[in-house]
Every structure is written in C-alpha cells, then in structure tokens.
Amino acid sequence: MWQGASASAVPAADRFDWFDQVVANALAPVALRPLDAAAFHAEGAVLDLGEAQISRFSYSPVGSRRTSGLIRKRDPEQYQLGLGVPRSRTVDLPTDGRWKPPVDS
Fold first, then answer.
1. Judging by DSSP bridges, how do beta strands 31-34 and 3-6 pair with one another?
2. Cβ neighbours, 10 Å, residue 26
3. ∠63-26-88 over CA atoms, to 5°?
4. How far is C-alpha 42 from the geometric centre of its chain's CA atoms?
5. Spans of all domains in the chain
6. CA of residue 38 relative to chain centroid, distance
C-alpha cells in the first residue's frame, strides 16, 4: 500500500526543508536548492515491497548534486534506479561537477 505525504501539510516557510529531509531519508542524501523557496511545493509516496521499495515524487523545480561525502553517507550495497520525468523543465546532469540550474524546455 502506498504511503504518502504532501508539503501542503507543512507551513510554507518549512516546505523546502521538509522535502529535503524526506528525500534524504527515502532516497539518499543530496544537496538540493529550490529555484523559488517561497512557492515551493512537493508531494511523495513510498511503496514498500520488502527487499525493494518504490518511491515517487512530484516537486517544484530544484537544483541538485551529490558530493562524494554525501554518497558515502549511505550503504554502499544499496542500489537505486531513478527515472526522471520532466514536465516543464529539463534535467541537466553535468559531468564536470558544476551545478547548472534547470532551463525551460
């Protein structure tokens, strides 16, 4: 059974911090930056299948990066498969380690 939550249940000033913590706990530690913190909204749900877990998220535009320090914070034997489905933004995964903001598609 899916278990979910929405940032709308959190005061507006705390919504991005709430989402940042949810992502760190459900997926992996990641450095996130909202493009518009004041208008940020997110929701997510998790389906626990025993040895596997499915997570789904919908959220306002963010920039993200994972440093080697953040990567080392999680179990190295844990594997994750991610599928990003952009709506009005594109996903930019730079290989030079520099973060770039999303651009309108």
1. unpaired
2. 13
3. 35
4. 9
5. 1-105
6. 17
Q: Of the candidates 1, 5, 85, which has an alpha carbon nearest to the alpha carbon of residue 45? A: 5
- Two structure tokens written together for 103: 């651009």
For 3, the 3-state DSSP assignment is: strand
pLDDT confidence of residue 77: 72
Residues with Cβ within 8 Å of 105's Cβ and at least 6 positions away in sequence, in order, are: 86, 88, 89, 90
Distance CA 11, CA 103 (A): 28
* Residues 57-96: tens digit of each pLDDT: 899 988 888 888 888 887 767 777 777 776 655 555 555 5
Length of the chain in terms of residues written: 105
